[in-house]
Specification:
By secondary structure, the chain is mainly alpha-helical. It folds into two domains: 32 residues; 115 residues, no CATH class. 49% of the residues lie in helices and 9% in strands. The strands form two sheets. A two-stranded antiparallel ribbon has the order 1-2. The longest helix is centred in the middle third of the chain and has 26 residues.
Length: 158
């Protein structure tokens, strides 16, 4: 791999690891970047644009989850005041997530998407060091795929 491709990959990884609230935006070619979840919270549309007819999507929330409006504390508005697009994305995040979720479930109804999701809220937090909670979350995912693995194989025609 030549150096420019490596640098691009490394830059993209650093940018996608720059989480809002926690990290500063990562600058690539004088453009600030944060984790893509701000503007594409449930990433599946690109696969459709590339022509894939069936997609498998992993959600971290149960089907009943609806994202609510995030009230931005003053310090966040201050932190991102130089980045109005980031502020706008943060303020509209719930609408975008819920729209993508609805679109995804429509694809599921049409037989074009297989959704792997927890039946209930995941016991672990977003950033969690509690090993018991992490193991429960892992076990829950493992049990889910054991129960739904055959359906996934049928969906993929394997």
């Amino acid at each position: 791999m030549d150096g420019s491709k490596y640098n691009t990959l490394l830059d993209n990884l650093k940018a996608s690891s720059s989480l809002p609230f926690i990290s500063k935006p990562y600058i690539i070619s004088n453009v600030p970047h944060l984790d893509g979840g701000l503007t594409d919270p449930i990433s599946f549309k690109r696969a459709l644009e590339l022509g894939y007819e069936k997609i498998v999507v992993i959600l971290t929330q149960p089907s009943s989850y609806v994202k609510e409006l995030l009230k931005l504390p003053g310090f966040l508005q201050s932190k991102y005041k130089k980045y109005p697009k980031i502020l706008k994305a943060l303020k509209n995040r719930h609408d975008l997530y819920n729209k993508q979720r609805d679109d995804l479930f429509q694809l599921y109804e049409e037989g074009k998407a297989f959704i792997i999701m927890p039946p209930t809220k995941i016991p672990a937090k977003r950033i969690d060091k509690n090993l018991k909670r992490l193991h429960r979350a892992y076990d829950s995912g493992y049990e889910y795929i054991c129960a739904h693995g055959d359906a996934l194989k049928r969906f993929l025609k394997l």
